[in-house]
Amino acid sequence: MPHTRFTREFRDDAVRLALTSGRSRRAIAEDLGVGLSTLRSWIDRRREHEIDAPPEERQEDMATELKRLRRENEILRQEREILKRATAFFAKEGSR
């Protein structure tokens, strides 16, 4: 089987189609004339790239999410401290 080189645009379109069309990856690969494993590797590479360098609009979403999670984390730390103190207090009360 000859080794075919696909353009970046073709690979990007194939990945976009696979992620948004609702069709099976096998059907998309067959329609495009590429192997299923090839399509999967393109999808995996795209996901890895997005993790390493997310698109600009996604970076804003991630910054907002990070801010929310930090706030939630601080609240959970405070609640844990309160529960630790309450546990210690009731342990002393119970031993009297």
Automatic annotation (TrEMBL):
Keyword entries, A-Z: Coiled coil
UniProt cross-references to Gene3D superfamilies, sorted A to Z: Homeodomain-like
Record GO terms (molecular function): DNA binding; transposase activity
GO biological process: DNA transposition
Annotated InterPro entries: Homeodomain-like_sf, RD_transcriptional_regulator, Transposase_8
Coiled coil ranges: 59-86
Name of the protein in its database record: Transposase
Organism: Microvirga subterranea
